[in-house]
């Protein structure tokens, strides 16, 4: 019995998700240059021919993943620029990151992929607006920290320096999660927030 259009669509979507997960992981761990189409296909458990039916070259997949990462940052920025008390906005974001780090490697791989994209200085970064969204995120968090300082909720100090310290903790945890996935112990959100909260 032939498959329906909906069944074919579901199979295609499931295959693309496998390709995305495999590509994200390999680009994050090995870098763009060292990752081949064959590597991605093998990791996804599909043939190289099927991989080429979805993406004609690895640059296409990489660009799509970078755009997806930039889109995620854009959503975070929109939330930071929306309504809400500054401490609660940062706390909510930190709790999500902490949960992602506990659950699986997915966030960590995307975080590392963004770094790889910037380090490769790829055209995908320029097209996606990833650098702009990253800079916007730094500005948003700095502003929220400054507002928290005015309410005597956040530690004193240069808001931008505190922002970079906070983001470096998250980035460092992501890197350690990728490097030590079996032995990794994700800290609680409150432990991450300790670098910002006034006692």
TrEMBL record:
Q: Which UniProt keywords apply?
A: DNA-binding, Transcription, Transcription regulation
Q: Per its UniProt entry, which superkingdom is the organism in?
A: Bacteria
Among PROSITE patterns, the record links this protein to:
HTH_TETR_2
Q: What is this protein called?
A: TetR/AcrR family transcriptional regulator
MF (Gene Ontology): DNA binding
> Does the record bear Transcription regulation in its keywords?
yes
Q: Cross-referenced Gene3D superfamilies, in alphabetical order?
A: Tetracycline Repressor, domain 2
């Amino acid at each position: 019995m032939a498959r329906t259009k909906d069944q074919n669509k579901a199979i295609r979507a499931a295959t693309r998700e496998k390709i995305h997960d495999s590509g994200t992981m390999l680009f994050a761990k090995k870098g763009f240059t060292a990752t081949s189409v064959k590597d991605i296909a093998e990791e996804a458990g599909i043939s190289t021919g099927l991989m080429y039916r979805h993406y004609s070259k690895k640059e296409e997949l990489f660009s799509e993943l970078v755009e997806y990462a930039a889109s995620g940052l854009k959503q975070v920025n929109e939330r930071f620029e929306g309504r809400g008390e500054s401490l609660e906005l940062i706390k909510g974001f930190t709790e999500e990151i902490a949960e992602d780090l506990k659950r699986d490697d997915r966030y960590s791989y995307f975080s590392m992929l963004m770094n790889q994209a910037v380090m490769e200085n790829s055209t995908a970064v320029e097209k996606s607006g990833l650098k702009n969204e990253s800079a916007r995120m730094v500005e948003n968090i700095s502003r929220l920290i400054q507002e928290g300082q005015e309410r005597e909720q956040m530690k004193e100090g240069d808001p931008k320096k505190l922002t970079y310290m906070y983001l470096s903790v998250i980035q460092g945890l992501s890197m350690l999660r990728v490097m030590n996935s079996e032995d990794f112990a994700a800290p609680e959100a409150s432990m991450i927030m300790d670098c910002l909260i006034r006692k």
